[in-house]
């Protein structure tokens, strides 16, 4: 079992959203980001990208490529932004726009799966005017890639990121990671009492009336998809049924699960790692910690990522933009403002988290998470949905 080292947290305000997207949901929203009116560039430093408060006061020296070491951004990109952390992504984009007064992004925000379908239909129809797709989950990126709607990324847009977090044939690349975890109430369980086997939660009596889950949440569905791929349909069915028989409590999303764990409403839950950190950040004395299982679907590490759309006339600008997302500045933004796992080795995660290469995720092609329908069918069959 890998446990998170305890770190003192100050009070900070963080975005969170409910709904069905992997990091929340902002459905049906479109908008345009305005570039700077002034042609004078704003000097943007690392501190502009870094979060504030006690959590980041002792950040170590960071290493990697900085934004002033790669080509400037100049021109206009049309971006499809999938998922629920739209506010955070737009904040990052606005920072880049401030630094590059001749750079502007037009954007559309909808759930990742909806935009993936839209992109493939537009490319098939030959009328796509979109340059770039940012998605909160690898499954949607994989869907776009597998349907021939993403172009091959250049070597310099791929190299900073470990191979498990790149798409097949280099059609997409991860920009921020999230690990499945077990948030638990420290008044109910000690670290040693939390199993390192995800299947234990479906069979051990100590978890009767103690578990929270959010089966309509896309992050949970991706996790169940990983279990189905790794362990097979029947074993996944047994796990879902076993957790149901534990009299599991149902929540809208994993932010609510983590707060319920902190409140003692449930003792443990299934959630992406950063939700517990956000609870700790806003409630420093809350009795909540997280643990990680090992080598099973419960230890899945998924990613938000970027794909350049097939047929774009602005491939070079889109490539430079992707490279900016993998700079020290942008990765520090994801680490300290979103509590995500950075994708480059020179930027560590926050909050005493183990580094991503210290976790024990299952061996799985993240692109296969796009095959969601068999999972939803199974969940309906056993009465979870």
TrEMBL record:
<dbReference type="InterPro" id="IPR026045">
    <property type="entry name" value="Ferric-bd"/>
</dbReference>
<dbReference type="Pfam" id="PF01547">
    <property type="entry name" value="SBP_bac_1"/>
</dbReference>
<protein>
    <submittedName>
        <fullName>Iron(III) transport system substrate-binding protein</fullName>
    </submittedName>
</protein>
<dbReference type="InterPro" id="IPR006059">
    <property type="entry name" value="SBP"/>
</dbReference>
<keyword id="KW-0732">Signal</keyword>
